C-alpha cells in the first residue's frame, strides 16, 4: 500500500514537472537563398519608392534610414 502511494506520488511529480519543461530552441531563423534586397513579396512591408530586387534602391533606402532619424545611436540621449 505504501509503495503504491509512493509510486503514485513519484509519477504525479514527474508529470507535474514535465509540464514545466523548456521548449526546444532550434536555430531555425530565416532560410532564404534570396539576397536581402529581394524583399518579402508582401506589399505591406514595402516602403514607397523602393523596388524589390534593385540593389541601388535598397542601399539608398538604408542610407536614408540611417540619416533621417532611424539610427538609434544618433538619437540616444547623451
Task: Output the keywords.
78 residues
Number of domain modules:
1
Shape from CA axes? Answer: elongated
State which percent range the strand residues make up: under 5%
Number of helices: 3
Query: What is the overall pLDDT average?
Result: 78
Q: How far apart, in Å, are the first and last alpha carbons?
A: 71 Å
Q: What is the oligomer described by this structure?
A: single chain
Radius of gyration: 26 Å
Describe the sheet with the most strands. none
> H/E order of the elements?
HHH
DSSP strand count: 0
Could you estimate the helical fraction of the residues in percent?
40-55%
Low-confidence stretches: none
Q: Structural class, judged by helices and strands?
A: mainly alpha
Would you write up a description of this structure?
- This protein is mostly helical and 78 residues long.
- It has one domain (1-69).
- The protein has helices spanning 2-18, 55-67, 72-75.
- It is elongated, with a radius of gyration of 26 Å.
- The mean pLDDT is 78.
Give the secondary structure arrangement, pairings included.
Blueprint: H1 2-18, H2 55-67, H3 72-75
In short:
The protein is mostly helical and 78 residues long. The chain is 44% helix and 0% strand. The longest helix is centred in the N-terminal third of the chain and has 17 residues, at 2-18.
Amino acid at each position: 500500500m505504501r509503495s503504491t502511494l509512493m509510486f503514485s506520488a513519484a509519477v504525479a511529480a514527474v508529470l507535474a514537472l514535465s509540464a514545466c519543461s523548456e521548449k526546444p530552441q532550434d536555430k531555425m531563423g530565416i532560410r532564404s537563398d534570396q539576397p536581402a534586397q529581394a524583399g518579402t513579396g508582401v506589399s505591406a512591408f514595402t516602403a514607397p519608392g523602393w523596388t524589390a530586387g534593385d540593389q541601388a534602391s535598397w542601399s539608398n533606402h538604408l542610407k536614408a534610414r540611417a540619416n533621417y532619424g532611424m539610427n538609434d545611436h544618433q538619437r540616444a540621449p547623451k
